[in-house]
Amino acid sequence: MSQEENNETYDLMTELERLESLREDLAEVGLPSLTQVEGALALLTPGPDPAMAERHAALLEIRQELRSLGLTDLASLEARIDQLNNELDELDDEDDED
Q: What pTM was computed for the model?
């Protein structure tokens, strides 16, 4: 495997980890879409309650991640994860052929 292929594999694995972490975060807050995350943020006002402040911070982070990745919901996130897994499989198959 060439250095370029190693870099590509590493980049894909890093992005896959990021997406899987986001999927876990969405499951944890129980909101499967950007629209629902934004709705929850609109209704949630951070106050002195540490649990509410933590939830608010988590929702802000999820919203930012979804926006930066151009994803709108759990289905689009799952599709992107599948795509990355397929790309990694293809790279692995190419490596096996060498």
A: 0.87
